[in-house]
Each structure stands twice: as C-alpha cells, then as structure tokens.
Design a protein that fits this description.
By secondary structure, this protein is an alpha/beta fold. Helix content is 45%, strand content 15%. It binds nicotinamide-adenine-dinucleotide (NAD).
Length: 258
C-alpha cells in the first residue's frame, strides 16, 4: 500500500469545518495532498487546518453565494496553482414530515446538497479541461439516496439526485480523464448527527436507525475518509460513475434484530 497515495495532489474539500469534511482534510493531508478547506464557519475551519498534519489552507465561503464554484477554483489556483481533486462534502440534513416541510427548507436542502455540488463540479471540470491533465470529483451522498426514509423527503431526493449526477458527469467527462464517483455513508458519528440527539424524538429515531444496521454500530469519519482516499487515488484508476456505500450493510438489506 502506498503510504502517500495523494502525493502531489491538490484537493478541495467542502464542509471542512466539521464532521466528515474535517476528517477528510486530516486524512488527505496525511496521505500527501495539499488541501483547500472550504466552509462558511471560519473558526471551525481554522481548527481543521491547525489540526491537519500537512498543508491545509482555509477558504471561508458560503457555498450558496453566487459564483461559489468560480471562487473555489480561484482559491485553489491562488493557493496551490490548480486543483486535482474536488470532494463535495458540505450538506445539511434537517427532518420535516412531507406534509409540513416548508418550501424554503426544501429549496435549501436541494440547493446545498445538489445544486451546489453540480455548480462546483462544473467550475472545477472547466478548469481541469482547460489544464488538460484530468482529475477526480467525489460526491458525499448518503445511503438515504437509495433507501427511502420517512421525514426527510428533501434529503433523500437530494442525495438520490447526487448519485445520478455522479453517473451523468462520469460518462460526460470520461473523455477528459475526469473520474466522478460518490461515497454513500450510512450513519456516521459527527457533530451534525449529535445535534439530532438533543431531543427525545431524535434519540428514539437514532436507536431505530441503529437497529437496522447489520454491523450494529455507527461508522467513524475515518472510515469514510479511507474510502474517499481510495477513490481519489490511482488505486481506483478504472473506477468512475460508481457510488460506494459505506454503511455497515444498511443498504444491503434489513436485519431482524431490534
Ligand atoms: N453523518 C452522517 O451520518 C452522514 C450520513 C450520510 C451522509 N452524510 C453526508 O456527509 C456530509 C457531511 O456530514 P457531517 O455529518 O459531517 O455534517 P456536519 O454538520 O458535521 O458538517 C457539515 C459542514 O457543512 C458546512 N456547511 C453547511 N452549509 C454550508 C454552506 N452554505 N456553505 C459552506 N459550508 C456549509 C457546515 O458549516 C459544516 O461544517 C453531508 O453531505 C451529509 O449529508 C452524513
């Protein structure tokens, strides 16, 4: 196994101030990459970059702003002269029953979880095509993009869309040597998930989710990071248009436990 599978690679990670995104920055710098860490939370971003073992530069940016894709590319070109790998990780996962969900919440979830990854991928791929040496895009989807869950219609649809977007972009951009893949996490221990445990209802739902996971545990952000590093590395040089489920067997089928 190559100890530095991402040596010489410039990586952009969105949602880098917390959770899976933060772990991606730590693991990818460890794997030899130089990383532009993007998030709207400046303080968390600074913490991520100071925790990183290698080179990580922060870019504080609300990804819902106009021209966010272009600003990310400009940031990577300014800091590191280019961009080889984009990881679209920023996302939100509010719960609202379909009978009650407000239009604004629907638009926010679809906006951040689907439109933003498309616009960032488009701006990044335009840059990569201009440079002419290919690249990698990895979308952080969710098992909820394949397995329906009540109370999160907008979230499920956004992640199902992201998995399909991954496939479409993979086949459109294969001729430019740009691989596009997704990881689809199951339940992973992150601050975003811990927030959901603050209410009795949230804790009950969490127990129910755990009971459905064949491996009977949550995943660790490091386990996600290892998968993303694999997809970004030459070890996955013939893998494109794929969604890799990292979910302890959740999407394979249900257990009869619990
Ligand atoms: N944790 C899980 O169990 C789980 C499971 C499946 C999929 N996912 C996906 O993994 C990704 C990361 O999840 P997490 O649990 O680490 O979440 P998290 O809440 O810990 O981190 C999300 C990050 O995205 C950032 N962000 C939100 N809106 C932004 C905006 N407009 N501009 C810039 N940054 C913004 C937040 O500031 C935060 O740092 C999400 O896409 C999520 O859907 C997580």
């Amino acid at each position: 196994m190559n100890a530095a599978p991402l040596a010489e690679q410039v990586v952009v990670v969105t949602g880098a101030a917390s959770g899976i995104g933060r772990e991606l920055v730590l693991a990818m710098t460890e794997a030899g990459a130089r990383v532009l860490a993007v998030d709207r939370e400046g303080r968390g971003l600074e913490d991520t970059c100071s925790l990183a073992g290698g080179v990580a530069e922060p870019l504080v940016l609300d990804l819902l702003e106009d021209r966010a894709g272009e600003r990310v590319v400009e940031g990577a070109v300014g800091a590191f002269r280019g961009i080889d790998v984009l990881v679209n990780c920023a996302g939100i996962f509010p719960s609202s029953p379909a009978l009650e969900v407000a239009t604004a919440e629907w638009d926010l979830v679809l906006g951040l979880n689907l439109r933003v990854p498309f616009l960032l991928s488009q701006a990044t791929a335009r840059h990569m095509v201009g440079v002419g040496k290919g690249g990698n895009i990895i979308n952080v989807a969710s098992a909820a993009g394949a397995i329906a869950r009540p109370g999160v219609a907008h979230y499920c649809v956004s992640k199902a869309g992201l998995i399909m977007l991954t496939k479409v972009l993979a086949i459109e951009w294969a001729e430019h040597d740009i691989r596009v893949n997704a990881v689809a996490p199951g339940l992973v221990e992150t601050p975003g998930v811990e927030d959901l445990l603050q209410t009795e209802e949230g804790r009950h739902e969490h127990e129910q989710k755990l009971a459905k996971i064949p491996m009977a545990r949550t995943g660790k952000p490091q386990e996600l990071a290892e998968t993303v590093i694999f997809l970004a590395s030459d070890a996955a040089s013939f893998v494109t248009g794929h969604a890799l489920f990292v979910d302890g067997g959740y999407s394979a089928g249900h257990t009869f436990r619990g």
